[in-house]
Amino acid sequence: MNASEIRQKFLKFFEERGHVIISSSFLVPEGDNTTLFTGSGMQPLIKYLLGESHPAGRRLVNSQKSFRAEDIDEVGDNRHTTFFEMLGNWSLGEYFKEEQLPWFFEFLTDIVGLDPQKLYVTVFAGDKENNIPRDDESVAIWQRLFKEKGIEAKAVELMNEERGNELGLQGGRIFYYGDKNWWSRAGAPAKMPAREPGGPDSEVFYEFLGVEHNTKFGAHCHPNCDCGRFVEIGNSVFMEYKKLENGTFEKLEQKNVDFGGGLERITAASNDSSNIFTIDLLAPLVERIRSGATDSNERSERIIADHVRASVFLIGDGVAPSNKDRGYMLRRLIRRAVTHGHYLVGLPTGFLSVLIDAVISSYKDAYPDLKRDREMIREVFEKEQAAFERTYANGIKEFEKLLVKGDVISGADAFILLASHGFPLELTEELAARAGKTVDRGAFAKEVKLHQEISRAGSEAKFGGHGLYLRTGEVTIRDESEVEKVTRLHTATHLMHAALRAVLGPEVRQDGSDITVERTRFDFRFPRKISPEELAKIEEWVNGAIQRDLTVKWEETEYEEALKEGALGFFREKYPPRVKVYTVFNPKTGEVFSKEFCGGPHVEHTGTIGRFHITKEESSSAGVRRIRAQIE
């Protein structure tokens, strides 16, 4: 079966059993600030699982759009995706295990047509510390269901993955695990906060007999092994507990069933293909990528297909690329797709637009809003792609220079790629791995941590060392892309300082600056208001320097020697004997546009900054003016 058929048959199956079909919620959670994205079918229903009445009744079914950012690093194998659809059915205090397990088994074997010999089941082994019993009731139900198909289902206690790898299947078909078979939004019972609901679950796995066990995952295979032989296709959560303030558990007033089954994985099982990218929702994307590529790279093809599909749905649900939270994740997806498309498989510029059409074509019936919003989605894609490609070309050149330095790219060099060219660490690592190199991840983390600490510093400028040494006020740099934005604004601030002196005269003297991820604020000594005409000239001067794609370099020298060479600095008492001096210059003519004491870092070429725009000019205090500006 294809995915559309399975989606419709699932909805119809439960509708015939008294369930009301409800619409998928948006990927951006409504009224839930505990998470950035909707990652499961139960998430939009949590208040109803806790007892509130649902307007559609007590039996519900749907196919929920879902996105899990934590899976991004796993994408590229044969079964992980960031975006997926979760088939779900719920009982809000009506039926329980005795109805749910037989229904799901019937759907898999009689409706989808899966071979029951290839189905394996896991159940909760109990938690003695929290006085939660093991789920023998589900075991008895499963044994009866398998017996009806002529299969003796032996129950084996594994408890955890380590024991599973050590002992293997042992002839079993039903397996007891501990925390693996407990479901709550927070995970295991011990990790749950007060008032959080949860309960034991029973997962169903499909065995792909064509996949041989890989011993790098352990000596023996078992359902929760990561080798890919067994893939989870559905999980029935029996939500009957709530954690109290004192850490103990009590039963909920109503016993709920929360089922979630991966549409893509069930479709793959229906086709007996362990590669989820061969199903009808993803295969057309992979085929288009492969047909337009100059190099073959299966992992890259899967990453591009997944990331484009996920991005289409995120944009369709109102997410826009940015440097924060949901927008940052969307930006990361698009940039990874561009990177793998251009650099690793050689797709031409504009390939993303073709893939957007392929995604929308696959989903236009189930999600007609995508077709309606096609041009908006395309516009967001193309704008973000173009912005990244402006910095990408220079970034690749700088990356290639690093390859001749040795087998390990230093944390400092990786950070410069991020700050100057917007290359997240994972991108540098992927490119490095392709060249047989590695990246010092630990040193990179220290660089980022240093910048985070400095971003929380006080109002005075900091000097010496390697960091964002202009104050970033109350802003905490929470992700890598924010470092990039602050770095570009930092260099733009130096250019603005030079422009002020060029337009207003050398009497301009810096009196302080404050850079956040959103804007730069620059205070300078000057006796009068700046006219609109002068502000326009300052803007023009800065943007002219940006458009010339000037080179930015630094050197460390003695403080007095730097002064003699014309470097600007207005906080004499704070400078150490040896200082860093950043110079912005034209390498062809030698013309210097800016030369200042600074700790850095800066972009390596001004062309990566973006368009500079002054948003406000005002008085800060007697004899001091203040300019606020942004980059686009």
UniProtKB/TrEMBL annotation:
Keywords: Aminoacyl-tRNA synthetase, ATP-binding, Ligase, Nucleotide-binding, Protein biosynthesis, RNA-binding, tRNA-binding. GO terms for cellular component: cytoplasm. PROSITE patterns: AA_TRNA_LIGASE_II_ALA (PS50860). One of its GO terms (biological process) is alanyl-tRNA aminoacylation. Gene3D superfamilies: 3.30.54.20, Bira Bifunctional Protein, Domain 2, Threonyl-trna Synthetase, Chain A, domain 2. It holds the Pfam family tRNA_SAD. Its EC number is 6.1.1.7. Residues 1-632 form the Alanyl-transfer RNA synthetases family profile domain. GO terms for molecular function: alanine-tRNA ligase activity; aminoacyl-tRNA deacylase activity; ATP binding; tRNA binding. NCBIfam families: PRK01584.1. Belongs to the class-II aminoacyl-tRNA synthetase family. This is alanine--tRNA ligase. The lineage of its organism: Bacteria, Candidatus Sungiibacteriota.
